[in-house]
Batch of 2 targets.
Target 1
Amino acid sequence: MANSSIVLTQLDFDSYKDSLKTFLKSQDRFKDYDFDGSNLSVLLDVLSYNTYQNAFYLNMISNEMFLDSAKLRDSVISHAKELNYLPRSFRSSSAVLHVSMISLTILALLKTMSLRTELRQDQVLYTRANRFEYSKAAI
């Protein structure tokens, strides 16, 4: 047996397949077997793909185990809690709008902007989530 171990340190499908071929060629039973033109090639593809998927999954899991390399917010919060730090929750954006209206009637002195009123400026759509009243300011 020249090579009785399988090298799985690469994150590459082709290197996994080549390593499996090399391992099987070192076995006495598969010494003269053609791995490229046989049904065994399909099995090697499945094994290589499975090994590739497992390596990728374990790499992602190991990244989430450390605060420096975590990408998911839940993982970062979990690691921050171990350091007695509680991150702030998400907060919605807010804006202060100055709305000017030009009206010729007396009824326009007191208006109500209803729920889901849409305001547009510079191709951006703003939607009001609740209603509020406004009146003409004394100038």
Note: The chain has three helices and four strands.
Target 2
Amino acid sequence: MSPLGVDVLRRQGNDTSGGAAAARHARLALALALLSLTACDIEDFAGSRYERDFHNTYPLNAGAKVTVETFNGSIEVSIWEENTVDISGTKYGATQQIADELAVNIDHSPAAVGIRVPRPSTHHGNLGARLVVKVPRGAVLDFVSTSNGAIRVTGGAGPARLRTSNGTIRVVGLSGSIEAETSNGGITAELDRVDGPVRLETSNGSIEVRLPARIRDAQLQKVPFMLVVGDREAEAKGVAVRRRDTRDIEFKPVQEFISLVRELIDTRATKW
């Protein structure tokens, strides 16, 4: 898509009046003025913002629970091959003091880590924190939330709950169940393995889901049931059942599912 300025010039290309020429000169003068500004000046032109970077690392086991919350700013979570959690980011505010004083609360143990940036009661407006978090492979993304910013997750395990009130959500390589919700933005989910419910919701944006190849093949072949058995199902002596005619996934004990299939065969039922 062309920049707005170019589009305007094209629409007025056949106008030879003095008003059109004056408008072109005004746009040119504004462009030259902007080019003369430094990067700092441009930030001031749009509303100044001061920043403070931070970085922390703590021991964390594979399979640990992870929660990340901020009230304003983007969140990125990815996996790496270390048994530690790496937390970095940038706090920002209308003054350097506000940025410096913005709290980043971290509760950590080898079994769980919680990262939370609370909204200050004394300041409002242009402040928040962008967070970048690396977790061990297999870490469970229990809750990731921001009220104004994008969420990007690469790897990790469910059950995962992702929430933002104004931003996109992108998930790549997650294994397990997922709930993702945004009130203003699209959702893209590329899932490695599905062994629980998948719930994606947006009030204003598109939703794109890419399922594992085995699930796509089963849908094309119109297989009545798809069964998923992971560590949790094996421990509970059951199966996660996905029906062909619905997106819901329901846990059932093995003997209960066998009885259900026998009943369907006996009655020649076509639907559950």
Note: Residues 1-46 have pLDDT under 50 and may be disordered.
